[in-house]
Amino acid sequence: MDLTQAILLRKSRRSYKDEPIPQMQADALLRSIDELNAQSGLHIQLVTDKQAFASIRKNYGFFKNVPAYFVLAGNESDPKLHEKVGYYGELLVLEATRLGLGTCWVGSTYDKAQTKAELAEGERVVCVVSVGVAAGNDTLRERTIYSMIHTKSKKLEDLYECDETPPPAWFLSAMNAVLRAPSARNKQPVRIIYKDGKIEAATGEFQVNKIDLGIAKCHFDLECKNGFQFKNEL
Ligand SMILES: Cc1cc2nc3c(=O)[nH]c(=O)nc-3n(C[C@H](O)[C@H](O)[C@H](O)COP(=O)(O)O)c2cc1C
After folding, report:
1. Domain layout of the chain by residue ranges
2. Do 3-147 and 151-226 agree at the fold level?
3. H/E/C letters for each residue in 175-212?
4. Which CATH number applies to 3-147: 3.40.109.10, 3.90.226.10, 3.30.950.10, 3.40.470.10?
5. Does ligand 1 lie within 6 Å of residue 32's CB atom?
6. Mutate to test the pocket of ligand 1, among 185, 207, 217 (most ligand atoms within 8 A of CB)
7. Ligand 1 proximity of 181 Cβ (cutoff 6 Å)
8. HSE-up of 202 (CA within 13 Å, CB side)?
9. DSSP assigned state of 12
10. Would the pTM count as exceeding 0.70?
11. What is the CA(146)–ligand 1 centre distance, in A?
C-alpha cells in the first residue's frame, strides 16, 4: 500500500485494543519520524504512555485504551509551525495507516498537563495524534462520537475555485484527495484556488485552520501529478 491508498483507508479511530504497538510497526514509525524531522525541522516524537488520555474528564470520554501518541512539536518562532505540523504530521498519520494502525488528530480532547514531550529551548507542542491498534471495526462508541463531532462533509465543488471548465483531470484527482483530508470537527476550511496557471491555498486565520491547511496541502501534493508541490513553499 502506498500513501495515496492510505488516504482512501484512513479515518479517525478513537478506540484501541489494550495492547502496545507491535515492535515492527513501532520501529517503522520511529524511522519515519527521523526522516520527517530531518526534512521539516520539526520535533515530532512517539510517546508510549497512557496518561495524556487517561482522564475521561479531559478526553470527554471520546478515547479508549490509547496506547501511544505522536507529539507534534516545533520551534514557536517558525511562522509556518502550524502548517508544517499539519503537513508532516499527516504524512506520519498516513504512514501509520499504511502500517495497519489507527490514528486520530487531537487538538483539544486530551490532558495537556500529562503530555510527555522532550522540548528544546523555544519549542512547543502544537497538538498530538493518538496511535495504536484500532479496536476492530468502528465500535458503537466511535460511531456515536463521530456523529456528535463530525459536521456534514462538504462537496468537492465547495473546496476549490478554478478558471477552467471543466477543471483538468489532474486537478480534480488532487482535489479528491483534499476532500478526504481530516480537519478539526470536519469543518474542511481550506480552499484551493487554481487561476491563471497558479495554484494557491487559503483558509481562516485561527491556528487550528493552519494545521488543517497543512493537512490539505499534504493530500493535494500526494495526488498532484503535474509537477506542482505545496511542499516547496513550506
Ligand atoms: C487539527 C485537528 C484537531 C482535531 N482535534 C480533535 C480533538 O480534539 N478530539 C477529537 O476527538 N477529534 C479531533 N480531530 C479529529 C476530527 O474530528 C476528524 O478528523 C474529523 O471529524 C474528520 O473525520 P475523519 O478523520 O474520520 O475523516 C481533530 C482533527 C484535526 C485535523
Report:
1. 3-147, 151-226
2. yes
3. HHHHHCCCCHHHCCCCEEEEECCEEEEECCCCHHHHHH
4. 3.40.109.10
5. no
6. 185
7. no
8. 7
9. B
10. yes
11. 9
DSSP-derived 3-state class of residue 38: helix
With a 6 Å cutoff on the Cβ, whether 69 touches ligand 1 is no
Ligand 1 pocket test target in 183, 190, 218, 219 with most atoms within 8 Å of CB: 183
Residue nearest atom 30 of ligand 1, based on CA coordinates = 184
Residue nearest to atom 19 of ligand 1 (CA): 182
The C-alpha atoms of residue 135 and residue 61 are separated, in whole angstroms, by 16
For residue range 168-211, what is the model confidence (pLDDT) as tens digits? Answer: 999 999 999 999 999 999 999 999 999 999 999 999 888 889 99
CATH of 151-226 among 2.60.40.1180, 3.40.109.30, 3.40.50.300, 3.90.650.10: 3.40.109.30
> Helix, strand or coil for residue 128?
strand
Q: Say yes or no: CB of residue 151 within 6 Å of ligand 1.
A: no
Is residue 73 within 8 Å of 124, Cβ to Cβ? yes
Q: Which secondary structure element, helix H or strand E, spans residue 70, and what is its range?
A: strand 68-75
Q: How far apart are CA 39 and CA 62, in angstroms?
A: 33
C-alpha cell at 228: 506542482
Query: pLDDT (tens digit, 9 = 90+) per residue, 99-139?
Result: 999 999 999 999 999 999 999 999 999 999 999 999 987 77
Alpha carbon of 85 to ligand 1 centroid (Å): 14
